[in-house]
């Protein structure tokens, strides 16, 4: 018969998270908060562009993608018309992004996915923001909380109606998921690029650790810059 003290120790060892199988769900892409720089470099599959003090910068997207499909068209031949099946090849390119990992005390604390491309039509920033927001909400099974910040400028009845004014710095849009699994704060921010001429927009997705937060001043600087 098992000694009751030994049995109790065995039960307690499975209650303590350090002794049992823990949730290994990634917090961002394939990495988790608290990882070291070496661990993130081993887990991340994107192209490493730059390594700085407590910062790793990777490149995402930007590569052309070819898709092939079929379509039925009506053609005229020898005075007669008939339907024909043709192959249609479409070449599209996903926008390119900087993926920035930020470390605090040697542990992963923040990640930013920052749009590198510029769009001629400011409405394309709204479209992309909505696409990214919908994908995150679908993954989390949770709707975003939307916020518009106007400062001293007039409020909009429809904050999505004037993307050019966002690029001019008159107001900003944010979609937020404050706490995910009690581990992560996520936000998408659309605002103006600093000192851009002509005016242009910034679009970034921020992931911030609840347990290993970066210095608040650094977080504020990154939100303002990216």
Walkthrough of the structure:
With 226 residues, the protein is of the alpha+beta class. It has one domain (24-62, 95-225). Helices cover 23% and strands 39% of the residues. The protein is built from five helices and ten strands; from the N terminus they run H-H-E-E-E-E-E-E-H-E-H-E-E-E-H. It has helices at residues 4-15, 37-43, 123-140, 163-167, 216-225; strands at 47-52, 55-60, 64-77, 80-93, 97-104, 107-115, 145-149, 172-180, 184-192, 201-209. The chain has an eight-stranded antiparallel sheet with strand order 1-2-5-6-10-9-8-7. A two-stranded antiparallel sheet has the order 3-4. Strand 3 (64-77) and strand 4 form a beta hairpin. The model is unreliable at 1-21 (pLDDT under 50).
Distance from N terminus to C terminus (CA atoms, Å) equals 63 Å
Mean pLDDT: 84
Structural class: alpha+beta
| Spatial arrangement of strands, main beta sheet | 1-2-5-6-10-9-8-7
Domain count: 1
What proportion of the residues form beta strands (DSSP E)? 35-45%
Q: What's the total count of β strands?
A: 10
Write a brief caption for the model:
With 226 residues, the chain is an alpha+beta fold. It has helices spanning 4-15, 37-43, 123-140, 163-167, 216-225; strands spanning 47-52, 55-60, 64-77, 80-93, 97-104, 107-115, 145-149, 172-180, 184-192, 201-209. It has one domain (24-62, 95-225).
């Amino acid at each position: 018969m098992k000694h009751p003290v030994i049995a109790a120790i065995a039960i307690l060892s499975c209650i303590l998270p350090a002794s049992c199988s823990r949730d290994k769900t990634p917090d961002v892409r394939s990495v988790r908060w608290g990882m070291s720089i070496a661990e993130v470099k081993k887990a991340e599959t994107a192209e490493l562009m730059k390594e700085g003090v407590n910062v790793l910068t990777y490149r995402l997207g930007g590569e052309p993608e070819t898709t092939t499909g079929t379509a039925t068209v009506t053609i005229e031949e020898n005075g007669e018309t008939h339907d024909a099946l043709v192959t249609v090849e479409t070449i599209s390119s996903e926008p390119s992004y900087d993926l920035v990992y930020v470390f605090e005390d040697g542990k992963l604390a923040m990640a930013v996915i920052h749009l590198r491309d510029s769009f001629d039509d400011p409405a394309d920033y709204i479209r992309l923001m909505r696409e990214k927001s919908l994908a995150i909400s679908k993954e989390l099974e949770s709707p975003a909380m939307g916020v518009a910040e106007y400062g001293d400028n007039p409020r909009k009845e429809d904050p999505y109606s004037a993307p050019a004014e966002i690029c001019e710095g008159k107001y900003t849009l944010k979609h937020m998921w404050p706490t995910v699994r009690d581990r992560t704060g996520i936000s998408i921010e659309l605002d103006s690029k600093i000192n851009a001429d002509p005016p242009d927009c910034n679009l970034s997705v921020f992931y911030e650790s609840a347990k290993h937060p970066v210095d608040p001043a650094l977080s504020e600087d990154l939100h303002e810059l990216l």
